[in-house]
Amino acid sequence: MPNFHWWKTPKGPQPHEQVYSTRRADAVLFMLCKNDQLWDAARSVREIEDRFNHVYHYPYVFLNEVSFTSEFRYVISMIASSKVEFGVIPRDHWYQPEWIDEAKATLSRHAMVSEDVIYGGSVSYRNMCRFNSGFFFRHPLMQRYKWYWRIEPGVHFHCDIQFDPFLFMQDNNKTYAFTISMVEFERTIPTLWNHIRDFVGLHPEYIAEGNALEFISDDGGESYNLCHFWSNFEIANMEFWRGEAYASFFDYLESKGGFYYEVYDRSSSSFTSQFTVMTHRDGVTPPFIQLLPRCFLRAIKYNFLTKSVMNMRPLRTAQNMTIGRRADAPAIHSTTSVRHFKRVVRARKMLTILELHQISMASHVSTNFYV
């Protein structure tokens, strides 16, 4: 497991040091959703507009396996402050390929359902995983852009995002930004690592020095430790996905049928080629995970050193979110201060435990980087 922690500030440029300008990256806000998710999608767009895009005005692309309704187009277009495009996914990019052995796939789904594996019986979920792994960046509407930020229906953006993550990544040679890293369900990918090892044997030229193997394997690649980046809120350079190394890797996994015989996703591709990663926890949470955004956690630390945790309010700028004791902060000596100190220590220990279980979540600005 790479040794990076939420309370340690890395060396190098920081997002909050970015000076606002009218310069923009070649980027898009991307959402994959269905017509019946209109109001969840509208809420997500409203929140990303309030927190970020009302200043930067990056365009949106919405994709669906069927045409969006006129109501969907109207509502989203009225909320967005920038250009919005709606597209239909090509059939061969979304639906199960004809060469897949449906009898084998059906038996696998039934077995997973009997074992209560999440999404074990869902074909549509497998379609989505395959599309997000190898096709979304090939869509004609996405081909126009280099960078994307994946936005989900029904998510929340808890904090103002007061820098441009696209420009920060572009200017600092970052390729991929993730919000959360979790442990994969091993039952969904029983053959994945063996296929990855086979691919590496066939294509050693794609394995770069300084790759992320140590993140996904604890024994030098003999086995997979199940760590993976959750792609739900990722920001990335699509030129990496469009490159030869990743394209060959996806085609190889596609040929093995694991997207339908199992539940493959893009979880373990990060070590096949070298790229720079940063955490991107801009106060984002999916509907079924709710943890304190880091802007609030830093506000807790700031306030327990000055006044009271109970009087905490979210602090708007990273400059005001101090880490550690401020030079002008009063000494901690009163019973009240000690009580607040103990509360924060308990909160910090709890968060550390959560991070060790790969459920670290949401901050105001990215403060953890590694190569």
The helix-and-strand class reads alpha/beta
Q: For the report, how would you describe the main beta sheet?
A: 8 strands, mixed
Give the CA-CA distance, first to last residue: 13 Å
Report the principal-axis shape. globular
| Spatial order of the strands forming the largest sheet | 3-2-1-4-9-6-10-12
Portion in helices: 25-40%
> What is the element string, with H for helices and E for strands?
EHEHEHHHEEHEEHHEEHHHEEHHE
Number of helices: 13
**Rg over alpha carbons:** 22 Å
Strand content: 5-15%
Instruction: Give the rounded overall mean pLDDT.
Output: 75
GO molecular function: alpha-1,2-mannosyltransferase activity
GO cellular component, one term: membrane
Family: Belongs to the glycosyltransferase 15 family.
Keywords: Transferase
